[in-house]
Design a protein that fits this description.
111 residues; mainly beta; 6-stranded mixed beta sheet; 4-stranded antiparallel beta sheet
């Protein structure tokens, strides 16, 4: 599956951004979609996953601040990010099936 992410940018701490990911195929047939991120000098890490069952998983550092959602009709997955912190600065990648990655979108949070 091909994935195209968008929505990154520069935001002040405490602000919000919404990332969008467009998939090239029907996401309702994909067991899991998610968002990962990679900060400078660090390994890529999972941020949030949404399963076909609509169950979700979040890494502890974003719980209560980020929300992942999907729109099967549009083959889109979103990541609403609120109360952003400088440590959220990273390149964010859309993911399908836990194995397929799209190009990243840069999120920069200034203090």
């Amino acid at each position: 599956v091909q994935l195209q992410a968008s929505g990154g940018g520069l935001v002040q701490a405490g602000g919000s951004l919404r990332l969008s990911c467009r998939a090239s195929e029907n996401i309702s047939s994909i067991a899991a979609m998610g968002w990962y991120r990679q900060a400078p000098g660090k390994q890529r890490e999972v941020v949030a996953i949404i399963f076909r069952s609509d169950n979700t998983h979040y890494t502890d550092s974003v719980k209560g601040r980020f929300t992942i959602s999907g729109d099967n009709a549009k083959n889109m997955v979103y990541l609403q990010m609120n109360s952003l912190k400088p440590e959220d600065t990273a390149v964010y990648y859309c993911n399908a099936r836990l194995t397929d990655f799209g190009q990243g979108t840069l999120v920069t949070v200034s203090s």
